[in-house]
Amino acid sequence: MIYSKAIKAGALALGVAVLGTTAVAEDGPIKIGVILPMSGGGAYVGEGINAGVEMAVKEVNDAGGVLGRPFQILLRDEQLRPDVSTAAMRELITLEGVQHFIGPATSATSLANSQIAREEKVVNISPSAKTEALTAGDNLHDFIFQLAPTTDVDGARTVEVLKGMDAKSVCFTGFDYAYSHDWFKAIRANMGDIREAGEFLVPMNATDFSATITQLLSSDCDTIIGTQYGGSFIAFVKQATPFGLFQTKKVLWGSNTGDHAVAAALGAELPDGLWASAADVWYFDGLESHAAYQKALAAHQGRKETDMWPITGYNAVKFLAAAIEAAGTTDPVAVAAALDGLTVQTPLGEITIDPKTNRANSPEFYGRFEHEDGSDIARMTDLRLVR
Amino acid sequence: MFTNPTVLFIQVMNSVSLAMNLFIIAAGLTLIFGVLRIVNFAHGAFYMVGAYVALSILRVTGDTDLGFLLGVLGSGVVMGAIAFVVERGLLSRLYDKEHMLQLLFTFALVLVIKDIVKMIWGTGQYSIGAPPFLRGAVNLGITYYPKYMLFLCALGPIIAIAIWFFMERTRWGRILRAAREDRVMLNALGTDVKMVYSGVFVTGAALAAMGGALAAPRSAVDPGMDALVIIDAFIIVIIGGLGSLLGSFVGALILGFLTVMGSIYLGEWVIVASYVMMVVILLVRPWGLFGKADEERH
Could you tell me if A376 lies within 8 Å of chain B, comparing CB atoms? Predict the structure, then answer.
């Protein structure tokens, strides 16, 4: 009997302790799980997005937090690997009690983590993944929100640019993966009289493109559309230039290669006339809100010529803060409901999440690279902010 | 596709150029295994350090022919010096330990090097241009072809012949071969085997680093550049035969042709094809095309 009482007393004490902890947690910081590539070839993307997250969190916290509570960032490295990315998300849910996530960065890792968000009923805002599959069909659920323009939207926008380039026939090239397939499909669906002359894909993460470059040169197309990104795009340009590819064909590239980081890495090697897109460019001066954001970002990063990735993380935090404020609680079910149809003022104007698709109508820049005024680093000219 | 002989010629040249770039990297790996009997997982990290060191040297010298030459040689010297410290200070303590410890050590070395690279050069992406005299294309009669890729086509065999000559025709080469066969006996005969081992590890690491510097004009310099090249290097030395220089040369040619031609005909299956080829060769000759079986060694 004494033993039984002791167990009951222990259980009661444990219950009080747990309830007490919960009460403390309700008053403590709101934890945001930020899962991004912070090592390897994708680290520059993760560091960029995280810089935007940090800046927005600082702004929110300096303004008194959300519901009177500050945001706290818990950052994990996803290494561009779905297994690592999902393990990080489960760890943050289980050990840290995180209920709101930003990231991962890529389509493959985002698809994997979205399924955990569905199972665990935690909010997952994807800042940068572009694949339609993330929020299409059975993959769409109440807790996943996609801020980057999806491939179907990109496809329609790209065709408008192609028409402006006076493209008559196109060749497709890039990595053999979901983004390429989805984007090319969307372009084909919209390109009307523009003729397709061939598709030349390479295995994911291939580093030698000489065979494909030779195929592209011998193909009957006047315009090339490609998808290699980051370091792979840099390698493609360096391998294609001595073959004269950029002198003989017009080129339009996806995968946000309009990012200033790419132009800075290639310097004088980036061919003039190449069309590209970017989520943000630091030299756009068409909006006061963007100028103010860039000024703050420059101060945060210690350099004026910033990359495009921070704005994706910045907007993700702003959406999360607005949703928690609107919901009046951090409960993920209520926050997810508040995100449906939510409109937020961002540096590039108002962005709204469609309550049916959970996709935001984020704009993107399109332009043509040129080295101007003798500068070694090209900028996009004919710059247009496409909504 | 190959009804056009010009296109076929270009694709053959592409294959050889890629193969020779890979051979320069794999040569160091097979050299280290051949003498030290260590499977060096850090070889890709050495390759990456080489590219970054060349980048830093070129920032100082400017984008000149001499700057590029100094970048390539400097990458070998710097990586060689680092490798000497690592080998003498740490790796040499593991020669008599089980292979698993050696594997774990080189794997740990990868992680340490990657973090140091991140601290020094950050996570950004960089680019090294080809030296001015190797930019553009040259007329080969039937077509124009990039000068830098031709340079790689020529450099691979030159390095192969140089290593072969050193190994087969010099006193130091005989010592290395003796160390590979029986280091205990060599030590008993009065040769400082420790320094032989250091020399081999330094040379192998320097070759990897110079391979990274030479590959940089055709790729991006970024913190992930080591991950893929180490796989290719291992495939080459495994199919060629661990420790065989000729095997690495032939293995590099096989992988180069498979990668270029396979990407035309096999699409995404080209990656699987390289592994299938490795498995088939290992089933037929477990010691690789030009390696020696244990019974042949003794």
Answer: no
